[in-house]
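tl;dr need the bound structure. longer version: we got a ligand (zinc ion) that a collaborator sent over and nobodys looked at where it sits. i said id run it. heres the input, straight from their email, havent touched it
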Amino acid sequence: MVLFNVSRVETTPFGDQKPGTSGLRKKVKVFKQPNYLQNFVQSTFNALTPQNVRGATLVVSGDGRYFSKDAIQIITKMAAGNGLRRVWVGQNGLLSTPAVSAVIRERVGVDGSKATGAFILTASHNPGGPNEDFGIKYNMENGGPAPEGITDKIYENTKTIKEYLTADLPDVDITAIGVTSYCGSEGQFDVEVFDSASDYVKLMKSIFDFESIRKLLSSPKFTFCYDALHGVGGAYAKRIFVEELGAQESSLLNCVPKEDFGGGHPDPNLTYAKELVARMGLGKSNSEVEPPEFGAASDGDADRNMILGKRFFVTPSDSVAIIAANAVEAIPYFSAGLKGVARSMPTSAALDVVAKNLNLKFFEVPTGWKFFGNLMDAGLCSVCGEESFGTGSDHIREKDGIWAVLAWLSILACKNRENLGGGKLVTVEDIVHNHWATYGRHYYTRYDYENVDAGAAKELMACLVKLQSSLTEVNEIVSGIQSDVSKVVHADEFEYKDPVDGSISKHQGIRYLFEDGSRLVFRLSGTGSEGATIRLYIEQYEKDPSKTGRDSQDALAPLVAVALGLSKMQEFTGRSAPTVIT
Ligand code: G6P
Ligand code: ZN
């Protein structure tokens, strides 16, 4: 057994280590500064209870982006230095964010050990590479992101840190599965490298009816396509879709994980998932080839998803509503019924209507998956989702891209149970149209203004808050811009009281609510790494089934005009158009 010594290394604080919505995300160059990563990791160890450090088991892996391999070596040495008992690493350092959550909750090590937390190395959907982003976040014993109490403590620690602990271990080989043991003055330290997919695949098989999905995928009527955007989803796609479910290998796009995501932006939306969008017949220049019936993509760390039908986009807000409406019938895990459903505030109210019709408990939480975790731990919520392409359930404590794809395949398999032999295939588009016919449609769009001047973004938001004190003035402005939209009847900043722990989160987005149920929401992104990103969410409810088939940009054009006018978007940002529209 290799012997190691622990040393204390002197360091000085960095002023910019405040974790955002999902951990610390910065340019690789920032992370490469001497001691930068070390300071954050030590500050995290110092923020945890001693039993989650000394003698504990820590998972360290991520989406495989550039700098991950270096980071794994640094963190492993620091884990040994801080008296942890073992570190678990997915082979080649790869684990999707949902798989990390599953590993913390479900995995038992070769010696019967269980993990108490994880460092997930990802900047999610942000690009990767030497000039792009790296990120790190800590997940807790329940498999979910650290709550604000912990991330605040981490931040406080980063401001005063004076030293960190590290061991002089040799670099660990993370390419080969197996356990390597080392011996320090306080005892043994192990590094266990394990298969990245096995635990996750096992969990998925316990949730879904793989046999019925296999039948659907093997039917000549059904065609399928999945794009991992060169993220870590590729490490799961082949195992699940091809080996377990019998999909053709040619139905996988960009499924080899790459450190720089092939130079792309690993964000599954209509702008960045270009190849998939074109293949599904939604691109500008459509080829003659008949698009597949179903297409999906996931982001860098495979927790986000986008669902497409043939020449058809399913909004994430509709997706979670449709999954909730069909879960009991189509997914064995939910056969006993749903405990409740939840969405983030800017997500459309499509889920609300399902909850009401099916008499389900319903929660509206601020943006950020961690808010769902408390509800799930308390047994109040089974299915939840966000407009930001996140969908998931209480099987883990992260959103889950591949779970969402399997949920949709399950619904398709269920609706087509009788049709695969003869009869017409019920398509993704049919499922969505039928849903609208039953529940009405929430026209929805999101405008993102990326990397705008942070000061200007703050001012824009401050003006919108100030405006809220006089609805009369607001309505004068609104009718001046567009005479045919309904009246604003309420305006506020969203505030949330967690029903489980009573904690209060303020300033969670600016809302303008209209008489006819329409909404405008303005928020600053919490996940960017440069400047500020303003998000504008626009929604309008249509109950009349004869009017649910319009193009959403057409239907929402009047409200968009109102939103841009009310916020003086161009005046503040200098932008005449958003960076991304979804
Ligand atoms: C991450 C979180 C999501 C959240 C999203 C918001 O992906 O995991 O729960 O919805 O960030 O991002 P934003 O950039 O809008 O703050
Ligand atoms: Zn992600």
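gonna send this back to them w/ a short note. The mean pLDDT is 95.
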